[in-house]
Amino acid sequence: MNKLIAPSILAADFGNLQRDVEMVNNSDADWFHIDVMDGHFVPNISYGMPVIQAIKKHAKKPLDVHLMIEKPERYIETFAKIGADIITVHYESTIHLHRTLSQIEATGCKAGVVLNLTTPVSVLEDILSKCYMVLLMSINPGFGGQKFEDITYNRVKKLRKMINDQGLSTRIEIDGGVSNKNIEALVDAGADTFVAGSYIFKSNNQIETIRDLKALANS
Ligand code: DX5
Ligand code: ZN
């Protein structure tokens, strides 16, 4: 499976948002990763609809919208309308997960589920065939720039086995502390899609950092 890189806009310079969106457009990156936080599901508030619309206006690649909000079912149609291409919701945030995924599919967006760092991957067994992608958090969600947690490798392996056993081709995305130090081991474990925020945006040459990450993931 082709390995994808999704720079996290949370780490961009919001005073120069268009410049950073163009940087991603001109890079080897595949998607824009868009983190929406409500201050309830996670202890931080990021940005909402007007900022996403501004990103969409200039973005030439799909928007991968990661909802860290309580009861995401209240806003699915809105996020689809303003330009989301992929919408992922946390398993821990919505009571009727199957219904929420159907709601995402009905908008025409691709649907995915996110698991917090220690939510067992086994909870996905009966919903996997409905997931375009599973996002495994490799940090506690809410903030960029945190340290990658090594328990993720084993979680990826278990999830990849579950996906293979069901004969599916579900993507596994990793979010939190991804860098050149762990991306190859994550690929070996079975992941194929990588969010990276601070590692890309804090680097001196962002285009080169993205190119190198993508090359490492596909080597
Ligand atoms: C955190 C977000 C991440 C974050 C990743 O809750 O979901 O997408 O931006 O940032 P880094 O790559 O800096 O850990
Ligand atoms: Zn995210």
From TrEMBL:
Its EC number is 5.1.3.1. Substrate binds at S8, H66, G142, F143, G144, G145, D175, G176, G177, G197, S198. InterPro entries: Aldolase_TIM, Ribul_P_3_epim, Ribul_P_3_epim-like, RibuloseP-bd_barrel. Keywords: Carbohydrate metabolism, Cobalt, Isomerase, Manganese, Metal-binding, Zinc. Pfam families: Ribul_P_3_epim. It comes from the Bacteria. It is an enzyme of class 5 (isomerase). GO terms for molecular function: D-ribulose-phosphate 3-epimerase activity; metal ion binding. A divalent metal cation binds at H33, D35, H66, D175. Its cofactor is Co(2+); Fe(2+); Zn(2+); Mn(2+). The keyword Metal-binding applies. Catalyzes the reversible epimerization of D-ribulose 5-phosphate to D-xylulose 5-phosphate. This is Ribulose-phosphate 3-epimerase. It comes from Seonamhaeicola sediminis. The gene is rpe.
